[in-house]
Amino acid sequence: MGSSSNTNTSGGGSDKEEKEDKGKGKDSSEPSFKEGDRVLAYHGPLLYEAKVQRIENLEDEWRYFVHYLGWNKNWDEWVANDRLLKLTDENIRKQQELEKNQVVDKTVKSGRSTQHKLKGANADAKADKDDTKNLVKGKKRKTQPGTEEKEKRSSESLLVSQFPLTLKKQLVDDWENVTQLGKLVKLPRSPTVDDILKRYLEHRAKKDNKINDSYAEILKGLRCYFDKALPAMLLYKKERDQYTEEVKSDISPSTVYGAEHLLRLFVKLPELLAFVNMEEDALNKLQQKLLDILKFLQKNQSTFFISVYDDRKGADGSKSK
């Protein structure tokens, strides 16, 4: 799952999908959903079953506080009408189709990946690399009926329960600056995501007295995920015009964006790891490595993260002041 109070990331779906089965939208005198309603909510490119817990009207626009069923309460969040669909048979089929298409799309894109031959590597190093390849390929677990919710909880447990508190506050401040105050992260950032990942690899090499191949593979996977996930699930609506201006066809987002958006990716990782095909022990080891990267971000928080956001026009044309 992606973030909520953590990032409150905007949902996916095509324009056509967003127009279907929505509520009445902005300026509606009545809310489209009421407290206690079971709904389907966009989170990134997928739909998840959720329950409306609270509603409010903010500047003539209804918002709904939802809990994603089967997920930790950390992912509860406020969403607008365009993130919600009614829980109907047709929309459930749409949910299943989106999940199916995402798995197929990831498999096709990763199917041409080069297979690395490991020479002289020990069993643990090989397992680490295999785990990372599974993460990059995004293979869906084979599950028995009734086990999906258990596996989701298991895959998210470490990253969610041990997410550093100071970084959680960083996420909340980031969300408030962009969505509430209309401010943006000034681009290009320094250090960039690329710079941060390189610094972490140097940090591990110094700590281990060698270049750790398993960490190198994980960082490569994170960079790949970041570049693909940023436009799809890591941007707020007000940041999309800025993305179009700064990221051209031959530019990788990881060379433009920095720690603020990289941290949003870590909130999405439990959702991605829920579909990784690996044994529980190997999954836990992978999560421990990801947590080590998070701790590196926390240790360098004052250096990597900005404290003042750019007070420029957002995508909605408003200027905060």
Automatic annotation (TrEMBL):
GO biological processes: chromatin organization; regulation of long-day photoperiodism, flowering
Keyword set, alphabetical order: Chromatin regulator, Nucleus, Transcription, Transcription regulation
GO molecular function, one term: promoter-specific chromatin binding
Region of interest: Disordered: 1-36, 105-155
Span of the signal peptide: none
Full protein name: Chromo domain-containing protein
One cellular-component annotation, GO: nucleus
Source organism (scientific name): Urochloa decumbens
Domain Chromo: 32-100
Chief site of localization: nucleus
InterPro entries: Chromo-like_dom_sf, Chromo/chromo_shadow_dom, MRG, MRG_C_sf, MRG_dom, MSL3_chromo-like
Compartments in which it is found: Nucleus
Biased composition (Basic and acidic residues): 14-36, 125-134
PANTHER family from the UniProt entry: MORTALITY FACTOR 4-LIKE PROTEIN, MSL COMPLEX SUBUNIT 3
